[in-house]
Design brief:
A hairpin with a 6-residue loop joins β5 and β6. The chain is globular and about 40 Å long. 0% of the residues lie in helices and 48% in strands. By secondary structure, the protein is mainly beta. The strands form 2 sheets. Strands 2, 4, 5, 6, 9, 10 and 11 form a 7-stranded mixed beta sheet that branches. It has no helices and 11 strands.
Length: 124
């Protein structure tokens, strides 16, 4: 298991950008595929993006590709989510998660470690 702590959330106007970070503890970070999910009030937790162990493969929810970019730095045990052209419907709690497998079409059940989440609020 790996411990995860997100940061970088906040309030931003529509059209703005935010960069979320997730810091992982432990020496096995590079063995995990990493993902970002988000959950709006009253909604299910939805997949946002994932990146494989080395960082050379990424996967995005179709509606977010082109606006969001996931990246990782294994030397610093961090994963980032760059969010551009934000919309009010992007408002949610964003969660970082770690998975022992790499696949397409991730679900929440594929991730065994989760952070506490960071709030992103986009005003219109």
């Amino acid at each position: 298991q790996v411990q995860l702590v997100e940061s970088g959330g906040g309030l931003v106007q529509a059209g703005g950008s935010l960069r979320l970070s997730c810091a992982a503890s432990g020496r096995t970070f590079s063995r995990y595929a990493m993902g970002w999910f988000r959950q709006a009030p009253g909604e299910e937790r939805d997949f946002v993006a994932a990146i494989n162990w080395s960082g050379n493969s990424t996967y995005y929810a179709g509606s977010l590709k082109g606006r969001f970019t996931i990246s990782r730095d294994n030397a610093k045990n961090t994963v980032h989510l760059q969010m551009n052209s934000l919309k009010p419907e992007d408002t949610a709690v964003y969660y970082c998660a770690a998975s022992g497998s790499w696949k397409l079409d991730y679900g929440v059940w594929d991730f065994g470690s989760w952070g506490q989440g960071t709030q992103v609020t986009v005003s219109s």
